[in-house]
């Protein structure tokens, strides 16, 4: 059976979000563009609950790009804590330095300039332009793609990402008024808390029209999700090695690092090499190891 394409009632979605959206601190109108950018870096691969305490501490300590840049990469890596994927912290520090030096400590407002900054890809550039500066640009993440696939196209799953197509589909839904940023945040919120991947709560959904619901929730193609395990991976070993260096204010001998992962020495050596290659750690002249910037 062909599923009718529908649209999303912007006023309906926006009023639900204003009433029921989560009260997340980076959504406060008083929060600066830099602080919104920091939240987007952190939220890329880490859930909200883990980001919250780190973000609050971060923006209190380093409220501006120049403050972050001046803190140095090692302090930034320490403050990143257990958010995971620590290359993001290094890129965020590099981004802060460029904004402080080249943009007078002000986050650029246009997508093209944002895209030239370290660590900023298509999603983050559009999220900052939209949420920090109220620009009319589509912001597309996994949650948004899923909501649009279901509510607009009547499909259970979003299918493979295609930046141009996905952005065009979301752009076609954006209201042409001052509610654009709220609409974009609401679309993401709906996918995060109601129209979730595994258990959409259609009974609580604010949308009065949804193509997938109206079609009787037809099943989609089975989706093979890649399960991201952590235990035993190089990511875990890298985290353990970084923990040792985060906990020391002086360079650490190789023997001390070796104690962090004893079960597979080949894997440990590989993880250590990759941290050096990524520039997250460095080696002193006498062969000890330190966080980047602390190996003098
Ligand atoms: S009605 Fe159900 S499937 Fe449709 S957008 Fe709402 S939660 Fe998602």
Automatic annotation (TrEMBL):
PANTHER family: ADENINE DNA GLYCOSYLASE. The lineage of its organism: Bacteria, Bacillati, Actinomycetota, Actinomycetes, Mycobacteriales. Keywords: DNA damage, DNA repair, Glycosidase, Hydrolase, Iron, Iron-sulfur, Metal-binding. Residues 42-193 form the HhH-GPD domain. It comes from the Bacteria. Its EC number is 3.2.2.31. It comes from [Mycobacterium] burgundiense. This is Adenine DNA glycosylase. GO terms for molecular function: hydrolase activity, acting on glycosyl bonds. It catalyses: Hydrolyzes free adenine bases from 7,8-dihydro-8-oxoguanine:adenine mismatched double-stranded DNA, leaving an apurinic site.
